[in-house]
Amino acid sequence: MFPTPLAPNPFLESELHIAYQRCLTLEAAGSDAPQHCPPPILCARLLGHLLRLAPAGNGQRHVQREITVAADDIKLMNLARFYLSHFICAFKRAGRLTPAPSEHLSHTSFEDFQQHPTVIMALDTVDHRTARAVARRRDDNCCMLTGKKDYRDGGLVWVEAAHIIPDVNNKSIREGGRKQFHSAGVWSFLSMFTNVNIAEELAGNRIHRLENVMSMQQTCHRAFNELVLWLKPVEGLGDTYHVCEARQGLKTQMNIPDVVTLSTATQYPLPHPAFLALHALCCEVSWMSGAAEYIVDVEGKMEQTNVLANEGSNADVLMKALSLVQTS
Fold first, then answer.
1. d(Cα 311, Cα 141) in Å, to the nearest integer?
2. How far apart are CA 148 and CA 141, in angstroms?
């Protein structure tokens, strides 16, 4: 999937129509962007695609109002930068920032989970390692996308616990300070696009609840974290999803079917459709707007740039990085 120009205005005469038209105008203008903002065409497409793809209701209306009140193109680009930081980067940086699970189970024992699975998973005593162990039991030690067995159960792949909504945002809240302020804003922002109160449902160690965890082999986990693989619900079929890819051939390479149905022979809850829908929205907006490639480009250049050149030739790279630094 490559950056996609905004489609003609899909909204009838309304406030949504006016807001989307502003995105179309910014996309066509080709104006210069402030150093701290992404390119105008990316900003326009990020806002436009988000407005079009967001579920009807509070989230879509909030985006519409923010676009409408932006006084000029500069304010509009700053708004896109905010969404890049609080939405796209909240998911995109997960693969690099999620810490490895600890080596010890939490105070909530595995035996407790066996006896009271639905009750225990709602408590605040669940850590990453415990959730991973229970997820493996729920998913029969298999990747939920390919069905392949974990090597510890006689298979040929490494199966890991993948968070749908990343743990890194919760970790920043626990650390306090500026990161806490930013991550609290991320939770509020994500909650707008679903009927689930993210801040409440995933607060603290609840981030590790099974509804937010999927068993995936390493290659699938990395692709999921990098926003190149996502799941969209099949209408009318519970726990059944279309598997979408940002790059053609990815599913074939990893032996992932076009449609997967998540199931378990246990009492443990399956991944929550609302969490998967948020991840899918982020993936689609990031690729259709060009934000995913923009972040990869910035990160790649920063890896190559250890020290700014004396003549300032790498200053533009640093300025791009500064627009993402809030999520570091």
1. 55
2. 8
Instruction: Inform me whether the pLDDT recorded for 120 exceeds 70.
Output: no
CA torsion 280-319-321-59 (nearest 10°) is -30
Q: Would you say 112 and 259 are in contact if contact means Cβ atoms under 8 Å apart? A: no
For tokens 């989970």, name the residue.
113
Instruction: Summarize the confidence of residues 280-287 as an average pLDDT.
Output: 96
Which token pair is 293? 């490639």
Residues 53-57 have a mean pLDDT of 90
Q: Please give the DSSP secondary-structure letter assigned to residue 87.
A: I
Radius of gyration from C-alpha coordinates of the chain: 21
Between helix 73-83 and helix 15-29 the angle, nearest 10°, is 100
The reported pLDDT for the residue numbered 101 is 43
From CA 161, how far away is CA 214, in angstroms rounded?
A: 6
What would the DSSP string read from start to end of 91-111? HHTHHHHPPPPPSS--SS-HH
The string of pLDDT tens digits covering residues 218-267 is 999 999 999 999 999 999 999 999 999 999 999 999 999 999 999 999 99
Count of residues making up the chain: 328
CA–CA dist 133, 113 (Å, integer):
10
Give dist(CA 20, CA 13) in Å, integer: 11
